[in-house]
Design brief:
Protein name: Glycolipid-binding domain-containing protein
Number of helices: 1
InterPro entries: Glycolipid-bd_prot_put (IPR009467)
Structural class: mainly beta
Distance between the termini: 25 Å
Number of strands: 17
Strand order of the largest sheet: 8-7-6-5-4-3-2-1-17-16-15-14-13-10
Pfam families: Glycolipid_bind
Helix content: under 10%
Strand content: over 45%
Length: 186
C-alpha cells in the first residue's frame, strides 16, 4: 500500500483525537487509523481501525480493535460481492443495499461515501451505510444524505442522530470540519 493522504482530527464534543491515512495499491483503497477519546458516559477508548474498498469505493471489509473502558473490542466486518454483510462471521440481515461502512466513532469513513458518490456541485444523493455502534458492538443501517454545495463543502444529514450540518472537506476527500464533532488539526 502507498500512502495517498493523512489527517489528524481533534474531537470537539469530548476529549479525543483521531489520526488516519488513506492508502492505495493496484486493486484497493484502504483507510488505516487510530482514535483515542472519552465517551459521553465517561469511558475512555483506544481503537485502531482499518477499512478496505475496491477501486470503485465499494466496502469489502473493516476491522476495529482496541478497548472501550474495561471492555476489549475486536470487530471484523465483511461485505461479500452480493452485498451481504457479516459482523464477526455472523450474517447481518436487511443491509445488502448498504455499500459503505461507517465507523460511528471517527469522521474517517465519510471519505468513502464522498469518494464513491463523486457528486458535482448542486447534486445530492442518499448514502445508506452499515453503521458500527462501538458502544454495543452492533451493525445497523444509517441513512445519510449528502449534497455538494461547492468546492470542499457538502450538506450532510443523518436523521437518526438529528444531525444536519455543512461539512468542510479536503481535496483528498477527508472531512476537515465536522461541526460540533470533529475538526482537522493544522
Amino acid at each position: 500500500m502507498q500512502t495517498v493522504a493523512s489527517i489528524l482530527w481533534r474531537r470537539l464534543d469530548a476529549p479525543g483525537h483521531d489520526a488516519c491515512r488513506l492508502e492505495r495499491n493496484a486493486s484497493a483503497w484502504q483507510l488505516d487509523g487510530a482514535a483515542v477519546f472519552r465517551t459521553e458516559g465517561g469511558r475512555i477508548a483506544q481503537l485502531h481501525y482499518r477499512v478496505r474498498c475496491d477501486l470503485l469505493w465499494h466496502t469489502q471489509w473493516g476491522t476495529v480493535r482496541g478497548w472501550l473502558g474495561e471492555s476489549a473490542i475486536d470487530l471484523s466486518i465483511t461485505r461479500d460481492a452480493r452485498g451481504h454483510w457479516k459482523l464477526n462471521d455472523e450474517a447481518v440481515s436487511d443491509m445488502s443495499h448498504c455499500v459503505d461502512l461507517d465507523l460511528g466513532f471517527t469522521p474517517a469513513t465519510n471519505l468513502l461515501q464522498l469518494r464513491r458518490l463523486n457528486l458535482a456541485t448542486g447534486e445530492s444523493a442518499d448514502a445508506p451505510a452499515a453503521w458500527v455502534d462501538i458502544e454495543d458492538g452492533g451493525l445497523s443501517e444509517l441513512m445519510q444524505r449528502y449534497e455538494r454545495r461547492g468546492e470542499g463543502t457538502y450538506a450532510y444529514e443523518a436523521k437518526r442522530f438529528d444531525y444536519a450540518e455543512v461539512l468542510g472537506v479536503t481535496a483528498d476527500g477527508f472531512v476537515s470540519d465536522y461541526p460540533r464533532l470533529w475538526r482537522a488539526e493544522d
